[in-house]
Protein: Stage V sporulation protein K
Amino acid sequence: MDQPMRMKNNGQINIVLSSQKRKGLTKEMFDTQVVPKAIPAEHTALKEIEEELSTLVGMEEMKRTIKEIYAWIYVNKKREEMGLKTEKQVLHMMFKGNPGTGKTTVARMIGKLFQKMNVLSKGHLIEAERADLVGEYIGHTAQKTRDLIKKALGGILFIDEAYSLGRGGEKDFGKEAIDTLVKHMEDKQHEFILILAGYSREMEAFLKLNPGLHSRFPLVIDFPDYSIDQLMEIGSRMLKEREYLLSHEAEKKLKDHLIWVKSVLNPPSFSNGRYIRNVIEKSIRSQAMRLLMQNQYDRHDLMTIRSNDLVYEEMNQ
Structure:
């Protein structure tokens, strides 16, 4: 049976029929099949989150996924209003990627979006790591984990480096934390959202520790490393926000350094946007010391980071 094909064209999704199906159809009839890409004006919550997302460099897959989640929730509400069956909306997520790729920032934005959509009552973010969940004796871990979940009710519980919960072996209390999380993900699935974050490979291994984990995270978002140009753009935005700028020589020196770090050194500890932020903050302090010694404070000098001001982070290879 002839099936329609979908083809993207100029930012729209067009329904393209086979030649047999096209017979007898006018251009006007075809125009009605075009699905516009523009978002209707009434979706203020999505427009607000889009404005925030636009401040982030790259992350195209993540931005698209956030819009799809919004559409999915919104359309399910419309189906419910019409008495149609709706999917069970499980919104627990997994963020996979290296440090400094924006995972915590995006989690905070998602909390705001879901609060505006009445999916979460508060939309706040509770950040946690292994030490916040794992106790020192039997029963202590479950209580600590329950206390954290209680604080996160109405918002998001964000656990970074979540794979560390499974690194201690069978006798480690991390397994107790995992089991407690799994239970409350089901019991309180509409009262809070759990986001687990960490390195991609380690997170895949972590999912195998409990048979119930994988199916409870329908939303998996990858956060790729930034490219050289994206890192330079992040640095430029940070400097602009602080009312600084790089001299031409400093810009070239920083870019050459990033090329060397990512292409030659390629350290596992490279922290992407966090690395750029640390370089900028150290370089600003270095510039301040130079100006102090030179006793030179005109507007251009106060704003300009020169090549000799740049201070790079130490990295473990």
